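This entry is retained here.
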Amino acid sequence: MNQLKILRLNKCALLLSVRFLSTSKCLNSNKNVALVLGGCGIYDGSEVLESTSAIIHLSKNNANCSIFAPNIEQFHVINHLTGQVSPETRNVLEESARIARGNIQPLEKLKASDFHALVFPGGFGVAKNLCDYASQGANMTINKDVERVVDEFIVASKPIGFICISPVLAARLIPGVEITEGKRDKKDWPYAETIENIALMGAKPIEKDSSEIHVDQKFKVVSTPAFMKQTATPAEVFNGIGDLISNLLRLI
């Protein structure tokens, strides 16, 4: 009789172990996240530290990161040493490949059905190459593939992360969305007018510091100001993006 009880207890313990391992495997299964770049370099492409911070935090959270960029000519090329326009042309996809270590695809191939979430780092490339906010402000238009991709993720109720200036894309494409663009204090926030512009486009600006995030639960949108703050440190930006990625993955 005692031997029979022991056998039953062992069988029960085995079943519980199998269930635990199965559940753990499910909880720790990798998520596929798409990252969209707009070139390489703060003044004419994607902000490098913001982009790499997102990639690192996705890796730390065991998420698979696939990188995309539009195969188009840049708005212009900026000499990052002098800040002056350089008389040359560059391709957004080719420049973005520098950050992606060559492992990148044209944005036209990105389908929401292949991914769990989407992330847009900041940098002037967002405002010049992914859209024309830099020249048109609240009257901006958006690259057709960027618009298509965001629409697909919203319709599928899949989370999207917007970093730095990139929430302007959400403001144009997601009416009523709650997003960050920093604070109205122009001393530390040289692009404070962006807050008023996203409001004009129908978004609800939420004032946050460079290391903070905001989560719009309704639209599954997570945003952080990052380097919208002139005095933000790399550590603050890195930590803020880390919180963004963690919360983004929780929404999946």
Remarks:
- The radius of gyration is 21 Å.
- Residues 131 and 224 are 19 Å apart (CA to CA).
